[in-house]
Amino acid sequence: MSRILVVDDESLMREFITESLISQGYDVDDAEDGTRALELMGNETYDVILTDFKMPKVSGMDVLKRAREKMPDAKVVIMTAYGTVENAVEAMKLGAYDYITKPFSVDEIILLVKRALEYASLQIENRRLHSELEEVYGARSIIGSSPSMKKIFELIETVSQSRSTVLITGESGTGKELIARAIHYMSPRQKGPFIKLNCAALPSELMESELFGHEKGAFTGAVRKYHGRFERSDGGTLLLDEISEMSPHLQAKLLRVLQEREFEPVGSTETIKVDVRILATSNRDISQLIGKGEFREDLYYRLNVINIVLPPLRERKSDIPNLGEHFLRKYNTENGKAVEGISDEVLDVWREYNWPGNVRELENTVERAVVMCKDTTLHVADTQMSNVGDKQFAGISENKHSEQTVTEIAAGKTLADMERNLIMKTLESEGGNRTNTADRLGISVRTLRNKLALYGEMNAFKRP
After folding, report:
1. Which residues pair with 52 in a beta bridge?
2. 396 lies in some domain
3. Which of 273, 296, 311 is the last residue of a domain?
4. Coil, strand or helix: which one is 74?
């Protein structure tokens, strides 16, 4: 039940308001002056406070100030005569919810209280939702207690409050996108959009339209006006995932946007200004790409204002038990299972394994184990991992990740045949994941995509 305090030194007015609100089912206290109101507020908590503005000794402004200190969620409504409306407006600037001029009807005061309570409820719900967002996407959502991860958490706390561009680097599967989301949802921009664009997923001719939008008729197939990711990110954050795969042509355009904070959609002469924070990720060493002429040095310095380097899982193995328990709970819920824990034998195997796929590989391992488990505890057999050699998956050579075992070298084959075979075998071993495949082969995703197009294998494994 909502609690309301009515403060007025005019007894008839105070009784009129109090009885009207009680008839609506509210729990109402009343105070004959400001002094009594302050006493009640010292011991009780109220959802709405209705206070007369002009009272002897302790005014309505004093009641408002105490309410802001004692119960900031309470909505204070100032009741005032016509001649003191300016004072009531001043009170609103100091945090009052609203004001109402005397005389007023029963319906007016009941409606005002109802609105104040609804607004308070919305504020509480909004805080709850933002708290949940931070729980899901903030730094607390990232599992890790190793020294290297603690430093990263501290860095996230610091950089999230700034407007600076952040470059997040690390091997595939280390959780770069999680870091980007944490920065956004812990920042003042958390109420704004968080938009992501995978630079490795689209050819350059489509990437420009995705970034900057296009006008109707700008090119074949442009049947309507399209708002690009930059425009849709206005007031929020844009994550450019795998920025190292962006073509040189688009790198130049992106540099201009970072410098000027404005752009023109494809096929338009209109300049659009945006307020967007840029976060970028890369699983490649961009400094090496600069040396090869594949990435603009000036763009790199624009992106690399703050660099967060994520360590591979093999360098923070103390986090494996907590990560395993986290994924165990997640996939128990998703699969309706009730696996209670992970055996020490499994944890020993996981600590010795090299984890080339990093946290993503561990997550996949736990998901598979939860599905296969017929006990209340995960065992080595459930994980399909072997406790011998390099701790690779059972049935696969410990040299799985060496290129020599992916394909065969045979006389009579052309270099093109061998290259195609190597690419397709690696793609198959990575389950169709092109980012991981390119990483293992030491080429860019763009180069891999071009090779697949050359071999007529663009639809291989039906993976993007």
Report:
1. 79
2. no
3. 311
4. coil
Q: Are strands 262-263 and 194-198 parallel, antiparallel or unpaired?
A: unpaired
- 241 lies in the same domain as 373: no
Q: At what angle do helices 204-212 and 248-260 cross, to 10 degrees?
A: 20
Do residues 265 and 176 both lie within one domain?
yes
- Does the reported pTM lie above 0.85? no
Distance CA 98, CA 348 (A): 63
Which residues, 6+ apart, have CB-to-CB distance to 244 below 8 Å? 199, 282, 283, 284, 286, 289, 294, 295, 444
pLDDT-flagged residues of the chain (< 70): 82-84, 126-141, 386-414, 460-464
- Give the domain range for residue 180: 138-311
Is 242 within the bounds of a domain? yes
Same domain, 293 and 431: no
Question: What is each CA distance from 234 to 181, 194, 251, 463, in whole angstroms?
Answer: 16, 10, 20, 31
Last residue of a domain, one of 96, 128, 160: 128
pLDDT digit string, tens, across residues 13-47 = 999 999 999 999 999 999 999 999 999 999 899 99
My answer on whether 320 and 303 are in the same domain is no
pLDDT in tens, 105-127: 999 999 999 999 998 888 877 66
